[in-house]
Design a protein that fits this description.
The chain is α+β, with helices and mostly antiparallel strands and 222 residues long. The chain has 3 helices and 13 strands, in the order βαβαβαββββββββββ. It starts with 8 loop residues before the first strand and ends with a strand.
Length: 222
Amino acid sequence: GVQTCALPIFWSQGEANVAFPDEYRLLFPAMIVDWRERWGQEVPFYLVQLAPFDYGERGAKDRPVARLRDAQASAMALPMVGMALTNDIGNPKDIHPVNKWEVGRRLALWILRDHFGGETDPVGPTPAALTPEAGALRVTFDHAPGGLRHSGEGPIAGFEVLGEGSDEWAPATAELVDDGAAVVLRAEGVSAPARARYLWSDAAQGSLLNGGGIPIAPFESR
């Protein structure tokens, strides 16, 4: 008969799949749907996105590791699926970073919100709008209570922009504006940036967090 499963599933996996992001995008959500059908209920499913690690794909034009992370995030289109972000607590030289406490805290925020009425938003800041400005691109974020803050030292790193009609991404400087609700991106030699991406590589580490201590997830605008 059908077995019941009252407890949620926590999923931390994907390092061995980084060379096959397109397959993962299909297989991962299909697995979740299949398990739920077999158990006969919508089992809550919470995953951990891949942390920064140098997989040796630097310079690869199609950025397979970033695309694998994006495939992981796409599973959140299913109901009762959440994702703990780790891009600010990884170690590019260690595929198993040691700060598991914070990973557990971020998973717990999903459980608390979905099942116990918790008020802390577990979703990382998400691009809501990209607005061209004079020689720049403004990216406004949802899920940014309290505004974004830069937790690192030195300039904000990890952003790239793509100019109108170009196919070459350029590293961008980032300035927090609107009390941390947005960033303004500029890149040398790019007069009309039209698209943006963030942490779109294997080992890039994030430093922008919202008021709940959740980082921006890697993204590439379309």
